[in-house]
Amino acid sequence: MATQIVLDHCGDSRYEFDANDHDALLKAEHRFKELTDAGFTAATRTASGQPIVKRTFDPKAEEILFFPRLVGG
Hints:
The protein has 73 residues and is α+β, with helices and mostly antiparallel strands. 22% of the residues lie in helices and 38% in strands. β3 and β4 form a beta hairpin.
């Protein structure tokens, strides 16, 4: 199962989906677009643990972390 983890002011929410299930994949892709359009940054990790920012949905990613835009001041 792949997981989308959304960090926000309430903590975190986890959404698991089966990348082999067409409907679940469409729902995960829609959530990705919704969150990134709302200003969240999406990131995955390489095999060595290095973070990579994702601008498009990657159905092969096992874990995608979404974190809100940081505002300074």
